[in-house]
Amino acid sequence: MSQDLNRRDILRTGILLGTAAWLSGCQSHSGGVTELPGKQWDWEDPLNDPLKSPPVKSSNGYTPGPVPTPNTPIGPVPGVIARSQWTNAKPIMTRDAYAMGGVARITVHHDAIPSTGIRSMNDSARRLESVRRSHISNGWVDIGYHYSIDPMGRVWEARPYNLQGAHVKNQNEHNLGIMLMGNFNEHAPTSDALNTLDSFLAEMMRRYRVPIGRVYTHQELGQTACPGVRLQRYMVATRAPSGRLARA
Ligand SMILES: [Zn+2]
Asked: Domain tally for the chain?
C-alpha cells in the first residue's frame, strides 16, 4: 500500500513512469502531442450532443455539471475494489476539477509499464499509487483514469466516477477512462484481464447506454501508442460484429 513506498521507490517509480510514458505516449496531457484532425461525432441531434455541453466549475471546485440525461453517473459498481483499498489521498479539488456530468463514451488505455511482476493485491495497490503520484506531479487533480484492471482481472476504483477524468488530451468530457496495468507493446494482456475488460465494458455500456461505436482506445482519439499493439489488436477484434464484446 501507499505507506509501504519509501522515498527511493517513489523516485525510482516516478522516473520509470516518466520514461515509459515518454516512450509509449500515454501521457496525454503533457506537451508535444500532436492532435489528429477533429473527430466527427455521429449524434443524431447536434443540439442535443452531450459532448458539446461545457463542463461546469464553481469557484470552490466541483459542482454538478449539466447532465446529459439519461446517461448520468449512477453509482458505485459492485465487485470493484474501493479506492480506499489503495490510497488515503483525495482528489485535489483546488486544481482544475470538473464534474463528469454523464458518460457518453469510454476509452481504454494501458499504463505503459510492464505488469508481468504484479502478482498480489499489494502489487496492484502500489502500482496504482505510483500512477496517481505521477499524475499528481503533472499538476492534475488525481489519477487520470476512472478504473483500472490488474493482470489477475480485478477491477480497481481510481478517480471518482463523478469527476471528469484526465486520460485523452482535450477529449475528457463525458469520457470514462479504463486502464489495464501493463505495457502491451512489450507483453500480452492476461486472459483474466481481457475477460474482465469485456465484462466490465459491457456493464458500463449498459449502465450509461454507450453504444459499442463509442468505445474507443486512446490511439483512436489522439496520437499515442496507447494501449499498445496487443491490446489495440484485441480491442479491434472484440468490438467486431462477431467479437466477444459485441455479443455480450
Ligand atoms: Zn492512454
From this structure: 1
Q: Report CA(201)–ligand 1 centroid distance (Å).
A: 16
If you measure from the C-alpha of residue 99 to the centroid of ligand 1, how many angstroms do you get, rounded to a whole number? 21
Q: Is 204 inside any structural domain?
A: yes
d(CA 60, CA 218): 31
Instruction: Specify if 64 maps to a domain.
Output: no
**C-alpha dihedral, 87 to 133 to 125 to 78, nearest 10°:** 60
User: Buried (b) or exposed (e) across 97-126, using 16+ Cβ within 10 A?
Assistant: bbbbbbbbbbbbbbbbbbbeebeebebbbb
Structural contact between residues 105 and 214, judged by C-beta atoms closer than 8 angstroms: yes
pLDDT in tens, 56-99: 333 333 233 333 343 566 667 888 999 999 999 999 999 989 99
In a domain, 49, yes or no: no
CATH number of domain containing 176: 3.40.80.10
Query: The C-alpha cell of 219 is what?
Result: 490511439
Ion ligand 1: residues, Cβ under 5 Å: 26, 109, 218, 226
pTM summary value = 0.75
